[in-house]
Every structure is written in C-alpha cells, then in structure tokens.
Amino acid sequence: MSNWTESANSLEKTFKFETFEAAMLFMQQAAIKISELDHHPTWTNTYNRLHVVLQTHDAGNSVTQKDRDLAHILDSLYLAE
Q: What is the CB neighbour count within 10 angstroms for residue 3?
C-alpha cells in the first residue's frame, strides 16, 4: 500500500487522474471489486481527484485486514491505468 495514511481509525488516500472521465472510469472499475469484497468505502470525487476513506463499520469503525485488502486492490487498479 503506497501513500495511504492511517489515522483516526481509518486509511485515507487521494488518487489523481488525468481527467474527470478517467476518475469516473476508475470508480466504475473499482466498484466491481468493492462489491465482490462486500466492503464499501467512503469516497469523494472532485474533477480529477478521488479521495478514499476506508474503515470497517462492523468492527467499530476501525481499520481491519478487509480495509488493507481493499487498499491494495485500489492501488493495483490505479497502477494499471
């Protein structure tokens, strides 16, 4: 996991893309993997940036292996861009 910040019981990262459309495509591709994990991040998109916050609600809003797994998946998708 590169450049993820762990604080306040969450993992956070901002991804930057060339265009708004590229950010939207990434979100669509990530949504498939996210649904497979049944783990849903908090994310905010503004133009070409996507800010992601990961924490496991079922574990008292703390960081679990499920969050680390999703962070790794998101990083892998991003690097494949």
A: 10
**8 Å CB contact between 48 and 18:** yes
| Distance from C-alpha of 15 to C-alpha of 80, rounded to nearest angstrom | 13
pTM: 0.91
In whole angstroms, what is the distance from residue 12 CA to residue 3 CA? 9
| DSSP-derived secondary structure for 2-25 | -S-EEETTEEEEEEE-SSHHHHHH
The count of other CB atoms within 10 Å of the CB of residue 77 is 16
Look at residue 25 and tell me whether its pLDDT is greater than 60. yes
* Amino acid code (one letter) for 62: S
The domains found in the chain, sorted by start residue, are: 5-79 (3.30.1360.20)
